[in-house]
Design a protein that fits this description.
Number of strands of chain A: 3
Structural class of chain B: alpha/beta
Mean pLDDT of chain B: 85
Chains: A mainly alpha (about 290), B alpha/beta (about 250), C mainly alpha (about 350)
Largest sheet of chain B: 6 strands, mixed
Order of helices and strands of chain A: HHHHEEHHHHHHHE
Distance between the termini of chain B: 25 Å
Distance between the termini of chain A: 51 Å
CATH superfamily of one domain in chain B: P-loop containing nucleotide triphosphate hydrolases
Order of helices and strands of chain B: EEEHEEHEHHHHEHEHEEHH
Strand order of the largest sheet of chain A: 1-2
Strand order of the largest sheet of chain B: 6-7-8-3-9-10
Structural class of chain A: mainly alpha
Low-confidence stretches of chain A: 288-292
Number of strands of chain B: 10
Helix content of chain B: 25-40%
Largest interface: A-C, 75 and 67 residues
Radius of gyration of chain B: 18 Å
Helix content of chain A: over 70%
CATH architecture of one domain in chain B: 3-Layer(aba) Sandwich
Oligomer: heterotrimer
Chain lengths: ~290, ~250, ~350
């Protein structure tokens, strides 16, 4: 029973990381109908920036904040320079371009920060918490991770629903033509969308790197699982991203714990296939017609 | 060039609020507008008619900036706005209500209306006041303001898109087939609304309609397009009386 | 078919060129020829799947793994002659391709991409989970020798280059035939508008599964070649990077084009090597030198896509038609007409409804 609790809690924590990546992918997908393959790489790069800041200032929180800011900037810059020119071209071009961006970022990381494994500090203590003597399998840091992702998700949701800026983004995502005709600068909105996605990725990066160590390819696996979570939830659905992330986190935690930790990615595949068999567009997909 | 193109400056001596001069535009290799000149008199209703594929929708899309013109000018009271982006053009005072679903069904009625004011720089209270004004004008919208726009009927959606366009405080309103898909009674209401808008607000309206008969019934002036060119331009009564023209280009 | 003799002639000419090069160039270049031939085999299958039938796959590396492991296991346990091994590899991957194709038949676009990506990532982990049979992380060693009739002095690398090139050419000729056949036409119809295709009487699901099987077999054969050329089959050789490289090669070369498969393979095999050479010749060692090629490779991918939106083959055709004038009928193979959403700017007024839910 204790084991089950530990697996569950640890599954939730990782699930939140996948959810953050999934959310960033959903943000970009809804706004631009693009898959950003460089999302994990961007998260890795901002985490490197964070570690440098932490070394120089001896402050974790300075690094944390700078990472998020760097995520905003990196997202916006990527959209403006690399992605904007692929608008109107065949669909897969943007996929290759973001793959190129990913490879470029990983190369740059290797050049500027070296290819070795670096350890990344956690926000709070990593000793396991206990409740009445029973180890929970999670630490204060893990609680922070969960809270941070949930809080960011909530803030973004509120932003989208209740602010004019959020309305602009939703309008542009649902119907870019109407949005333009109403005076919404859709191009700017897209850039903001990418910036926010960059922020989410940066958050995921700093939260997960204490566990995975930091190296140029450290976010690759997380990206794949985040992408899987987004697909499970439905690429148009932010709620789906969170649910998908949690589902995946829990399932992999149980599978790794009770069965075979080498087979977790196959378990993920099994879940993905099972979900897509029933709902080819993800759990929260709605079969609606959309204007292009 | 067209046989009976209207003189720039329009017939009645009223100044043209919107003058499209020698517009050439298209998509890829297709040329949809081949030197179109249309003049919309201020405060009046100008109907743009013609068969499918004549270029009517392209004309509106080019004026509103969705399509970049290859040649020609779009003059809004002496200011040439050709080539600007849609976001810029709506700020100059041209609002376009495109054909088909202009409503964003995933948003509420109120949110759809707020979008209309995105080009504003005004303050909060001015916006709220403006919205209330539209709610007063369009009662059914007021009743449904927090509901999703997908719950509106066809006629109500048309009201919503027009209300939204009006909130952009335009001087010129481009309407693309506002009666499409509406029941005859509702269509009559929409046409009625259009007439009131032009009379009460002095709004210049350019009305594209497949249903030429009802369009000519409300319009002051009519322009007939065929294959991207203007083939007739005269006041509405004259056009409606020209049986040969009607048969040839308008189907009735 | 009129064009079959023409294709065979082209194939024979290419084969002759390869033989010539393999004799003239050194062993490392022979190895590169083999590498390129292997890539072309896999990329050609993928470009048919994605370009002709419109199904994106980020997991063809998994089929390569299946082919490679099948090859290694048969050679180790049964020691059959290589041509038989190829048949086995093709058969096994055909079955795998059918299974995946059926599972994927209802998936579109990014959902298919996600599923195949995960397939590519997760399948090789089976080797780690069952190390007794699959050799675990160390993998399986493959022994491949030159046949006796060539004599003892015949370089192994040259033989490997010949074998891989032969397989690649056979695959290309067969795919070219498929492309022009009714099957190929059906694929294009399904890609462009599956509803219309179904109304035309085409069995859409069967066509899609067929495409997956074909591309899986190509990848499986490529995996077999990989096994005999590198001599080692291990999970580390089938990372997500491989699957992504295959798609990259297909798109950069020109999606849907077999010639494009060649251009793309040349790019992904030669560019990293070239850039590494340039870096090391400048005396850069250490992590900077090792990573500049990576960064440069990323830049190349971005630039090629921005400059040649229809891939290298598309760019070449444009150049050719620029020289020969407007009389030449353009044979640029367009991919499916889906574009990603752009606000306005020269789009046709007919509203295009993008259906979110399918099937």
């Amino acid at each position: 029973m204790v084991e089950f609790l530990q697996f569950t809690l640890s599954g939730v924590v990782f699930g939140m990381i996948y959810a953050a990546i999934a959310l960033s992918l959903v943000l970009i997908w809804r706004g631009t109908r693009l898959l950003n393959f460089a999302q994990g790489g961007m998260a890795m790069l901002t985490t490197y920036v964070a570690i440098e800041v932490i070394y120089k200032t001896n402050s974790y929180w300075a690094g944390f904040v700078v990472a998020l800011a760097a995520g905003l900037i990196l997202g916006a810059v990527s959209e403006l320079t690399v992605v904007r020119p692929t608008v109107g071209k065949p669909e897969l071009n943007s996929v290759i371009v973001t793959i190129g961006l990913l490879i470029l970022i990983e190369g740059l990381a290797g050049i500027f920060f070296g290819g070795g494994y670096r350890s990344f500090p956690a926000a709070f203590s990593v000793t396991g918490l206990r409740v009445g003597g029973t180890p929970l399998g999670v630490s204060r840091s893990d609680v922070f991770t969960t809270a941070a992702v949930l809080a960011t998700t909530l803030i973004l949701a509120l932003l989208f629903r209740y602010t004019t800026a959020g309305l602009r983004m939703r309008a542009a995502a649902f119907n870019a033509t109407i949005a333009q005709l109403s005076g919404i600068r859709v191009a700017r909105v897209l850039t903001v969308g990418w910036a926010l996605a960059g922020l989410l990725g940066a958050l995921a990066g700093v939260l997960v790197s204490p566990s995975t160590f930091l190296y140029p390819n450290s976010m690759d696996a997380i990206f794949v699982l985040g992408f899987t979570a987004a697909v499970i939830g439905g690429l148009d659905s932010p709620a789906g991203a969170v649910v998908g992330g949690l589902l995946l986190g829990l399932a992999l935690s149980y599978a790794g714990g009770y069965w075979n930790s080498s087979l977790t990615s196959l378990v993920a595949l099994g879940i993905l296939v099972a979900v897509l068999m029933i709902r080819p567009n993800g759990l929260f997909a709605s079969a609606r017609m959309r204007r292009v | 060039m067209s046989a009976e193109a209207a003189e720039p400056g329009a017939a009645d001596g009223h100044s043209a609020a919107l003058l499209v001069d020698g517009l050439v535009a298209g998509y890829g290799e297709v040329t949809a507008l081949d030197g179109v000149t249309v003049s919309a008199q201020a405060g009046g209703i100008t109907a743009v008619l013609g068969a499918n594929g004549a270029g009517k929708t392209t004309l509106l899309r080019t004026v509103s900036g969705l399509v970049k013109p290859r040649r020609g000018r779009i003059l809004l009271a002496d200011q040439n706005v050709a080539g600007r982006s849609p976001e810029q053009i709506v700020r100059t005072g041209i609002a376009h209500v495109p054909e088909g679903q202009g409503v964003i069904p995933e948003l509420t009625v109120e949110e759809n209306l707020r979008i209309g004011m995105m080009s504003w720089r005004g303050n909060r209270s001015a916006r709220t006041a403006a919205m209330e004004e539209e709610y007063t004008r369009f009662k059914p919208l007021a009743d449904r303001r927090r509901k999703l726009a997908s719950t509106l009927s066809g006629g109500e959606r048309q009201m919503l898109v027009i209300a939204r366009a009006l909130l952009a405080r335009p001087r010129v309103l481009l309407l693309d087939e506002p009666s499409l898909g509406l029941a005859p009674r509702v269509m009559a209401q929409v046409m009625d609304l259009i007439v009131r808008l032009s009379r009460e607000r002095g709004l210049t309206i350019v009305l594209v309609e497949q249903n030429a008969r009802s369009a000519l019934a409300v319009a002051d002036h009519g322009v007939v397009l065929n294959l991207g060119r203007v083939v007739a331009s005269a006041d509405a009564a004259t056009l409606a009386a020209d049986v040969a023209l009607r048969h040839h280009y308008l189907g009735f | 078919m009129r064009t079959l003799p023409r294709r065979l002639a082209v194939a024979i000419i290419v084969a002759a060129i390869v033989v010539f090069l393999s004799i003239k160039l050194n062993a490392f270049r022979d190895f590169q020829i083999a590498e390129i031939a292997t890539e072309v085999t896999a990329v050609a299958g993928l470009t048919v799947l994605t370009g002709l039938s419109g199904q994106i796959s980020l997991g063809n590396g998994a089929f390569m793994a299946i082919g490679a492991y099948a090859t290694a296991l048969v050679l180790i346990h049964l020691n059959w002659p290589f041509y038989l091994v190829l048949v086995i590899a093709a058969a096994v991957t055909a079955v795998a391709g059918a299974v995946v194709g059926v599972a994927a038949a209802r998936l579109r676009g990014p959902y298919l991409a996600g599923a195949t990506l995960l397939l590519g990532v997760s399948l090789p982990s089976l080797a780690l989970a069952y190390p007794g049979f699959f050799g675990g992380e160390q993998g399986l060693n493959v022994v491949f020798n030159t046949p006796a009739f060539l004599g003892v002095n015949f370089p192994l690398t040259r033989w490997q280059a010949w074998v891989s090139s032969l397989v690649a050419l056979i695959v290309l000729v067969l795919l070219a035939n498929l492309d022009r056949s009714r099957i190929g036409r059906n694929w294009r119809a399904v890609r462009d508008n599956d509803v219309a295709a179904a109304l035309d009487g085409i069995n859409v699901a069967a066509a899609r599964v067929r495409a997956f099987v074909v591309s899986a077999v190509c990848a499986g054969l490529a995996g077999a070649l990989l096994a005999i050329v590198t001599g080692l089959v291990a999970p580390g050789g089938f990372t997500i990077t491989l699957s992504i490289a295959l798609l990259t090669a297909a798109v950069i070369g020109g999606l849907g084009s077999l010639a494009g498969a060649l251009w793309g393979s040349l790019v992904i095999v030669l560019v990293p090597v070239y850039v590494t050479d340039v870096a090391t010749s400048h005396g850069l060692s250490s992590s900077v030198g090792a990573n500049i090629p990576i960064a440069a490779y990323g830049v190349v991918l971005i630039l090629v896509m921005l400059v040649f939106p229809h891939g290298i083959q598309g760019g070449l055709l444009r150049l050719i038609s620029a020289f020969t004038g407007p009389g030449q009928k353009s044979r640029i193979r367009r991919t499916a007409p889906t574009r990603h959403v752009t606000p306005s700017a020269d789009q046709a007024p007919a509203s295009q409804h993008e259906k979110e839910g399918t099937s």
